Please model this.
Amino acid sequence: MPFFFFCRSCQPASQHRRHGGPLKSVLFWKMPSRKYADGEVVMGRWPGSVLYYEVQVTSYDDASHLYTVKYKDGTELALKESDIRSQSSFKQRKSQSSSSSPSRRSRSRSRSRSPGRPAKGRRRSSSHSREHKDDKKKIIQETTLALPKPSENNTRRYNGEPDSTERNDTSSKLLEQQKLKPDVEMERVLDQYSLRSRREEKKKEEIYAEKKIFETIKTMEKPSSKTKELEFGGRFGTFMLIFLLPATVLYLLLMCKQDDPSLMNFPPPLPTLESLWETKVFGVFLLWFFFQALFYLLPIGKVVEGLPLSNGRKLQYRINGFYAFVLTAAAIGTLLYFQFELHYLYDHFIQFAVSAAAFSMVLSIYLYIRSLKAPEEDLAPGGNSGYLVYDFFTGHELNPRIGNFDLKYFCELRPGLIGWVVINLAMLLAEMKIHNQSMPSLSMILVNSFQLLYVVDALWNEEAVLTTMDIIHDGFGFMLAFGDLVWVPFVYSLQAFYLVGHPIAISWPVAAAITILNCIGYYIFRSANSQKNNFRRNPADPKLSYLKVIPTATGKGLLVTGWWGFVRHPNYLGDIIMALAWSLPCGFNHILPYFYVIYFICLLVHREARDEHHCKKKYGLAWERYCQRVPYRIFPYIY
Ligand code: NDP
Model:
């Protein structure tokens, strides 16, 4: 097959014709709609580059005319027919190619045959600005070769990793590229790794004036498709969870109210339906929610971009959670100053939980209805099964927004998380009032301070939430709405709620030991999350240059030393240690205050398995290699 066929999809029409394009068009017109059969081994273009790798055709979608192909590392992508070549054509090409250095080969290919490059004659007759524009096009396309795509050193033989596998050199790799490529190219590389400073935005706009090229590349990515693998027990499991989760919250709160909250006393006396609902409480809850929404809308705090979505788009998020917390603290302080009885929250705790549950249900119904009108590309990869109950539970739409107001991002860290701290404070005041204490108990102080640290940390590092599963993968449905608005504030505050009715006296040495445990957990949790977050946002960060990385076919690396080389989820380990430290101040009389740590271990073990599954799909062999290098998931030498 002639060279001109290389990356035909990006060729300007004129160049296409020059190389006999019309003839090919006629042939294509007469050909059957599908050229390659399922199971056929062909060469598929890697998105964002002009490099081809051996792939196997797994299916063909008649509607979109896209082939689903599988790369050798297990990565699956949807490609257009024009981005697929037969293997024989490459054998011919290889014999004709004289370039020995793969990187040189890539560069020379793109120089001589860059699809974005116009024909010589035409270039001569064009104006200078046009030439300049075309050069930009060319350079931008060449830079795609510089990105860490699979086996850049060997475009034919790819086994999931480049030939030189592990490196702690993401930064040096970039520097190397900087030496090799023109400035504009480095711009593109820096942009890929989010290294660009905000003030360069304008320059960026100029360079990206020729966005069409990237749009073409983006279309090659797999469009959002139906969810085939159902989690949480599928349709039946999610249906049950919709009832089980609220029932669990109610059970825990009712038990906590008992003088003897032993599990043997199951079931607790059920309250009447009327006693569970109070319109005034619901009104206070709504007020709280809308005040937090107002704080979220304040134009304070920086605006950052999230990780690229499946269509390449990046959403913008305002980072002002910490400001919202400070404003809330000021508002609560003012209320207390004017003698507002915050333990109203304690007195009506169950009614508040019921109000929040009712609100989260209404919100979930709204989210599901609006998701039915959302374009396919906006749907969550895990919540698009086509089954109403399943999609309602897991969340059908990935990032539902009303204008710029991101509902999922808002609920994730604001009303529930800040609400949790306010509830804890209310419990502390209630304890003092009920037990006639001038000071809160040591246990209550520990629980309040540990959890306050956790919430402040989450809000201070709000940007890190943008790389978590909740934001990247999970849609916004009942699971997250209920989790954020009900489960977090009303179940996570269980220890403080428990201590009001069941005071425990602990000694200073015990308190010191528990504090040290919490600090260890926090240190692991924070450093692991920061390490990964910084690496994902800027793999070339010089502060991370000592870390070793396994490159993957997607261009993202996997940290294999540092915290992420200790266990595969060091952040979960730290979180679990902290969870234990939160329960210990409640003593050992009952298991109820340990519900959080038990549930949390189950949650994170399940979450780890989900993440593992997604990463395996995403990274293929590179992930398996990572698992071999880092055999333990959460607990070293145990699990
Ligand atoms: P993580 O922050 O652990 O993110 C998992 C992702 O990290 C993977 O999908 C992968 O994504 C990336 N990754 C995995 N291994 C590596 C590696 N070796 N090198 C680089 N990147 C890697 O997921 P969560 O969203 O589950 O957790 C975030 C935090 O929130 C944790 O600290 C967790 O404990 C906490 N959490 C707290 C909860 C609570 O209720 N208190 C509930 C759930 C979580 P990719 O490669 O695509 O970047």
